[in-house]
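User: Study the chain.
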Amino acid sequence: MSSNVTSESLWNRAIAQCCQEPVHILGHIQLFGALLATDENLEQITHVSANLALMLGLTEDQGDVTSYLGQDLQRLLPEDLIHRLRSACGLPWIQTRRERVDIYNIQGKDFEVSVHFNGHRTLIEIEPLSVVLERPTTLMPRMMSLLQSLDSSEMLLAAITEELRNTTGFDRVMAYQFLQDGSGEVVAESLSNDMESFLGLRFPATDIPDLSRSLFLKTSLRVIPDIDATPVPLLAWDSDEEPLDLSLAEIRGASTFHTQHYLRGMGVQSSMTLAITNGEKLWGLFALHHTQPRLLSSEFRTALDLCGMLFSLQLQQTITTEHFYIRKQAARVLAQTFTQVKQTSNTSNKREKVLNQSWQTLVSKVLPQLCKLLEADGLSFVVDQKIFTSYGHVPPEPSILALINHQPFQEKVHSETGIVTVESFALLELSRTESLPDSVSVPVDWGESAGGGFFLLQYHANHYFVFFRNELSSEVKWAGNPDQQELIATDTRDSEFQFSPQRSFEMYQEIVRGHCRPWSRHDLAVILELKASLNHEIVMFLQQQQNLLIAELKHRVKNTLALIRSVVNQTSRSQTSLADYINVLEQRIAALGLAHELLSHSGTEWPNLEDILTIELRPYLSDEFECGKQAQLNGPKVKLSSNFIPTFILVIHELVSNAVKYGALSVPEGKVIVNWQQVNGGASIYWREVNGPRVYLPQKRGFGCELLERAIPYEFGGEATLRFLSTGVEADFWLPQDLLEWVSLNPKLQQHDSVQQVKKTVNPYLRKGASLLVEDSMLIAMELEHTLKKLGFEQVDSAPNVARALELLEQNQYRICWLDIDLKHETSFALAYELQNRQIPFAFTTGYDSKFTLPNDLKSVTLLKKPLNSAKIIDTLNRILKT
């Protein structure tokens, strides 16, 4: 009993049921063809359509159609056709698209035969060869002429829709484009005078669910000759088997909802649909409608399918060209903008300036110009989850962070284009997000912004460039009022609902609020160019930094060589024996090595004072070491100039060496305390040794003392005082401000984990050697070559005939050969005997079951039936090459 249902929850349930309908496994086909399925080897019949016997003209004495289930395929099809089918199944694309085999006479009737493999079953489609009333004789020339003469996507769509209607005789042809939100809009149309126009109308995303869209990427042409034709059920040998996947089948059955409640509601009796792709994505559809049953010939449909592919390629090229000119214009504006900003900026040339700070500063100065270029109302630049700078009307910081951390967007921002755009923030339903830090996980407030987007620039930290647009009310024309649709309960329960057959497709105008101006293809092209330009500016900064690093490296190398020379000479003067000289020199050069390593890790950054002291005193800073904790470091975070590091490390090394040999670190109870603080604009460092042995004034002042007292004052204008008190050595240093950079955080010293390399192991039988493939079909040979190389063969040679194979045998040594029995005008038996004489293992391959009888002395040879796959080949290799 039917009843109208208006509940929103029931409406949503009905929508979900329609969208989730498994249209690829409906269990039936359309009446204009027949279908049978077999196992992978095309031997045993596993499925037949109920109309197969009638279509083939089988008589009663030949048995009911169900009697063929589980039987050999030869009971229904001639052997030469089976051979062609097996050869076709060896093609590399047989699992991704149908292969038209040819026209064959079966039981006295001509049929067009197609085949494909769905990963589990081999599906054979049979369509009667009808009297051709329409021939596509002029379609291809006119289509090619149009594609070559028009240079805009709008003109292309309009011209092709007109040409399709004139050529096919359908009453209405529409070009339907998918929009960003999933809905679609009719962007071009050609129709007869008595047909209703849908031009400019928008259809909801649920009209063509995701599953149906994915099928158009697999089979670009879909035909429904008559919506009132009775569906033909599929009969299975194993009733418990999963429904047969008909995704690639052209005669796949149609959804009852689509035919009876959708097409009928549009006044359509038959339809044909051509997919329009842009790259690997579904851009839209050509929808052909007719008010009477209509089925074009298979030849005509094949030509239309090819035209659709050619149009998609031309549309992709046209859109790419349009994008190129848009981006070229945007690039010119951006180049002028960045050039002007650089010329007017008083940028410091200080070598040690951090690169990303310069980059951030540049971005902040061009935001007004970029906002105008993007026709946006506001921009924000986010660095490490913090707003670095903003311009114009932007939401509060927590809202911006909620946007860029939204998990679905995070997946999209790392996709091919890496650009996220949103026309309505209100539809995101973002109130709180788990992806945000707890401190900013707050309700989302979009302010004046209605929509926006962002992209990611990965440079050291994550840099997000976020753009916003304010609300813009707009008028959308829908094909039918979505608020006035009816539902009909199909039974007494409320578990299943469908749209009413009386759905209206009359134009309904809706005023849309809470949305920004849509992000068009033009906008996306400009955003892509902006992203590319910003990346270019980053590269320019990187190049600048590289030049600085090279100059800094040259400078440091010269300084290091000079220091080493000085250390060698001074050490030789202060040591009395060769052994002492070598020992002290090694330690001092090792200290310079530590300085070099520290500077190498820091790049243009200045190293931390605490890190430098830690390197020299590490064994005495932790209780984990045998000597216990004997050193203390106390002071604020401060960085030291890179030019100062080698000298300073030598100074600290002399203090530590003296303490270890003679001072506080020479006994377990001794301690070294190093304190530092800001004094008179610079930094004072205090070295104190306590609880050590009694200290005596040195009788001779060597290189170490001179280094401690003179290096810092002489080279850097600082101060140094060294005191040998009886209670312990004391040293005071003062460093001027130009050697320092006071910071609030102390970067951690990086430790690198070792990475274990995992080596792949290859089957020893397949690791080396060459293989010979004798096959007269180039495509099949290419596929088998790829398979064999993938399995590990270093060399795979192919020969189309016995003569060429014999030539290759004289030139190479093969571990195993694969011989197709049936070659053009000959068999491979003679070659098989030659291989036996040479004691080279081989296997036969064939697409036939019984056309050729193997000679008695060859019957023990392995025989593989086509199509071949990796599993068959591996099994054969393991058996033949096991010794």
Notes: Residues 521-574 form the longest helix (54 residues). Residues 782 and 798 are 8 Å apart (CA to CA).
